[in-house]
């Protein structure tokens, strides 16, 4: 059984949703709505503030059973004592991350092209996330790959690692969730579709229901 339930990754992206909001409460609302993993992403804040925020989010999630991973920053993940990290091609090598965090840590990897897909095959990771599928307010993707690109890259990984959870990211909303699953995703990673909605808990619940319905139909 995979270590990670990747059906719905709620990304607490400070640059997209604003650092002045209660990040712990937002994360808790997503967890209560059914998010299966939470990611904290913060590209511009000082390290000390990032550690404080990661600890706040982690404390808010205590008792929910929902793991927290930190985007890019292994040092922040270690200091805050969270469950893992999500890294990309320009971050620390997965082998080094694993040595630092240990065998029980969750490690996710971004996949953008065939070379990244091959890296996902060779790396000791717990999930892969393919994207960006579409342009988003949080991140302008110069060459969005769309569902077609996802359908091209996912099988490269699945051929060798059939049980590795693979998510879809960037520009995924409620309407795009079913086609993402149809394209082969095991789940979706979202920011705006949860944290820019008036009711984060309700938006999360609707997304998870869409994921589960699409997975059931695909099966």
Automatic annotation (TrEMBL):
Q: In which pathway does it act?
A: Cofactor biosynthesis; thiamine diphosphate biosynthesis; thiamine phosphate from 4-amino-2-methyl-5-diphosphomethylpyrimidine and 4-methyl-5-(2-phosphoethyl)-thiazole: step 1/1
Provide this UniProt record's keywords sorted from A to Z: Magnesium, Metal-binding, Thiamine biosynthesis, Transferase
Q: Which Gene3D superfamilies match?
A: Aldolase class I
A GO term, aspect molecular function: thiamine-phosphate diphosphorylase activity
Q: Does the keyword Phosphoprotein apply?
A: no
Q: Per the entry, which co-factors are needed? A: Mg(2+)
Q: Which NCBIfam families match?
A: thiE
* Protein name according to UniProt: Thiamine-phosphate synthase
Q: Which organism is it from?
A: Phyllobacterium trifolii
């Amino acid at each position: 059984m995979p270590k990670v339930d990747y059906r719905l990754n709620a990304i607490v992206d400070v640059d997209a949703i604003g650092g002045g909001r209660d990040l712990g409460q937002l994360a808790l609302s997503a967890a209560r709505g059914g998010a299966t993993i939470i990611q904290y992403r913060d590209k511009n804040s000082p390290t000390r503030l990032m550690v404080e925020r990661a600890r706040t989010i982690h404390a808010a999630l205590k008792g929910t059973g929902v793991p927290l991973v930190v985007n890019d920053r292994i040092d922040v993940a270690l200091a805050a004592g969270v469950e893992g990290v999500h890294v990309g091609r320009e971050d620390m090598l997965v082998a080094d991350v694993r040595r630092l965090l240990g065998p029980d840590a969750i490690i996710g990897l971004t996949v953008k092209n065939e070379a990244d897909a091959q890296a996902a095959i060779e790396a000791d990771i717990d999930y892969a996330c393919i994207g960006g599928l579409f342009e988003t307010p949080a991140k302008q993707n110069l060459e969005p790959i769309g569902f077609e690109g996802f359908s091209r890259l996912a099988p490269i990984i699945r051929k060798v690692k059939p049980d590795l959870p693979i998510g879809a990211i960037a520009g995924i909303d409620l309407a795009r969730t079913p086609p993402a699953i149809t394209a082969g995703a095991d789940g979706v990673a979202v920011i705006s579709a949860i944290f820019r909605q008036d009711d984060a808990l309700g938006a999360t619940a609707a997304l998870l229901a869409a994921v589960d319905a699409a997975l059931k139909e695909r099966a």
